[in-house]
Amino acid sequence: MTGDHEDADGYEDDSGTLVRPYTVTRGRTAPERDDLTLITVISTVEEPLDEFGRPLRPQRLQPEHRLILDHCRRAKALAEVAAALGLPVSVTKILLGDLVALGLITARAPLSVARAAGGAPHSLLAAVRDGIRRL
Questions:
Q1: Nearest to 105, CA basis, from 40, 52, 21
Q2: How far lies 54's CA from each of 28, 47, 48, 78, 128, in Å?
Q3: Does the CA dihedral 48-51-56-61 come out positive or negative?
Q4: Is the separation of the CB atoms in 85 and 45 below 8 Å?
Q5: Segment among 8-12, 19-23, 91-95 with least mean pLDDT
């Protein structure tokens, strides 16, 4: 088989080795952040700095972290990142949370969602919610 195929219990890396998702996340099974959704927009920070203003060195990251940084040079939705990596969304959220905490990527709601949350009347939001429930 060729690399990056998702399996029910894991995925194959480029070498064809089966890797369990909990191995990629170092045993973590749930993301620390609860604000990451499928439509969260992820972008790599151009010149990341640490808390002292020194450039961050992402060389010590796991291969999956580096792949995320490469994929997100242009803004992508979380769902796109998970699909590109061939990883479950839950695993991708954990890895993205790591990178956000390190200051290597930004995660934000799409502009249309952010605008709606800030200025839309509650009746409109309730109507949208009710319409989705009917589906």
A1: 40
A2: 29, 10, 8, 28, 45
A3: negative
A4: no
A5: 8-12
